[in-house]
Specification:
Elements lengths: L1 E5 L5 H12 L5 H10 L2 E6 L2 E12 L2 E9 L8 H12 L4 E7 L3 H9 L3 E6 L8 E7 L2
Parallel strand pairs: 4-5
Antiparallel strand pairs: 1-2, 2-3, 3-4, 5-7, 6-7
GO molecular function: acyltransferase activity, transferring groups other than amino-acyl groups
Keywords: Transferase
InterPro entries: Acyl_CoA_acyltransferase, GNAT_dom
């Protein structure tokens, strides 16, 4: 059964393992740990297995900003990213929710589109030659 819950510190190693599977290292371990401690990390589960996670904060002009949505490669295209986004929209501490992805990340752009987010701007010069597209959705 699929469900989404807030992560707790006991989930840290599993979440870091999923992140490492995607990016190839554990460099974001401290960031993930702090997000869990702050209550800003939610996890998608299939039965008792963690298959993905979402991290957010409210430091983007006092709006919610989804900084990471990661689903394990073996569980992609099964609706987990959408499940995490739906949960975030229903529990967001602010009415405005933003996120972003690189122009080259077509699959994430499709996830945003399918979940009712729309493009709200572009930031150049973060990744050379691959602008960041900002997405927005309102809870209202």
């Amino acid at each position: 059964m699929k469900n989404v819950v807030k992560a707790d510190i006991e989930d840290l190693n599993k979440v870091v393992n999923i992140d490492s599977e995607v990016i190839g290292n554990t460099s974001r371990r401290n960031y993930i740990e702090k997000s869990i401690e702050l209550g800003n990390c939610i996890i998608a589960k299939e039965d008792n297995d963690i298959v993905g996670f979402l991290i957010y904060d409210t430091n983007f002009f006092e709006c919610t900003f989804i900084s990471l949505i990661i689903v394990s490669p073996s569980n992609r295209r099964k609706g987990y990213a959408s499940l995490l986004m739906e949960y975030m929209m229903s529990s967001s501490p602010t009415t405005k929710v933003f996120s972003s992805t690189n122009r080259s990340n077509i699959s994430m752009q499709r996830v945003f589109d399918m979940n009712g987010f729309f493009q709200s701007g572009i930031v150049e010069n973060l990744d050379e030659g691959d602008p960041e597209i900002i997405y927005f959705k309102s809870k209202c």
